Here is the input.
Amino acid sequence: MRPEFVSLIASIVKIAIVLGFALQAAALLTWLERRQSAMMQDRLGPHRADIKVGGKKFTLAGLLHPIADSIKLIWKQDFVPPNADKLLHGLAPILSLFPPLVLMGVIPMADTLCLQSIHERGWFAEVPRYGTCAAASTIKMLPPISGQIVDINVGILYVFGLAGMGIVGATLAGWSSDNKFSLLGGLRAASQLVSYEVAMGLSIVGCMMVYGTLRLDEAARWQGENVWGIFAQPFGFLLFLTAAIAETKRTPFDLPEGESEIVAGYLVEYSGFKFGMFYTGEYLELAVSSALIVALYLGGFNVPFLHRDGITLSLGGDVLWHKGLPHLVVILIQVLTFFGKVSLLCWWQIFIRWTLPRFRYDQLMKLGWRMLLPACLVNIFLTGIALLAFDRAGVGIHETFQSLGDVLNWFVLLFMLLFPLWIGFGLLTPSRFLSRRDEVRARRSLPAAAEPAEAHVH
Here is the structure.
């Protein structure tokens, strides 16, 4: 099989995986946000959409609500204000939905797949931990398959170049709608996104200084061999997370859509599936920002002690136990780990959205320009001093992080094992609201003589 044909098939498969995750993320995050907000507010979640089978109603834990929402948005009237710019009014939702879909193409989902090694040694072949796959120099050799759809050497610059298009979509929506509230929302969105994009770009400079690369796949591999970025750049992680939440325009940074102030901001004149495209784009931005945080700070596709050649438990440079794994199994685990981390971080951002109140607009701008921006510059300054100090002392920064990583990987592995169990226990535990409601119903169903004595005490 020709290498070009193999690369084409691999690209189609990767595009299908990314699109399948991205397009389903909006619907599933809608359901997750409703469930999470209901649990936090101690009330019933999505339960009204149901299907009847044999006289019984099934709600499927609320999963029918996203389907019902999509059906309603398709059939709703697509209203365009008479004096609106119809071309720009229709173009704005596309410009808001396009960037997050394209950005997922440069975020690595797994390590490089060495097809030539599998072809030579079999489906259950192991590959060396260090080194790269052989390049396809002849027709008979199979090319290595990157974990990204598009492998470019300036990945992070590409991300920020395309992320700025979201500003254009929100601004055009506000300006083209012929509505003063829409215009105010568009102006707020433009100023907010520009402000926090500066802080978000500067917050990752420290990571690039430590990793020594702009490539997202190389950054993920560095974290796998050394230490996760959240430990190498803890201050930068907090700054990037704050700026990323602001870029998604969600509470507490939802000033462009502030219902209590400007009705719905730049969305006020949108209905039907155009509104659905904005809505989908917002959740895609949530997923893409989570994927970027995972790739830069949470180890990317890496699992503690899992490397190309299998599982290697180590401490202080000493190998305690090693178990070889087939290369395909390692790649599959990495893909599942990456999307698992992204899903967990999306849930965390939803948790933040339903915890913090909305800022005032002046507080929003002060936070971006007077706090985040100086903090990013301080982080760059301290990172540079630390790197220079290690270099002058003759101590390798990478060797230091490798020794530290062996210890921290044990804590990360314990957290990755226990945290899903804690989340599952919380989801399966009945709500206190439901318990009180069932208790009231049980008391009402009792005969008057069987009611407990305290029920008659006032």
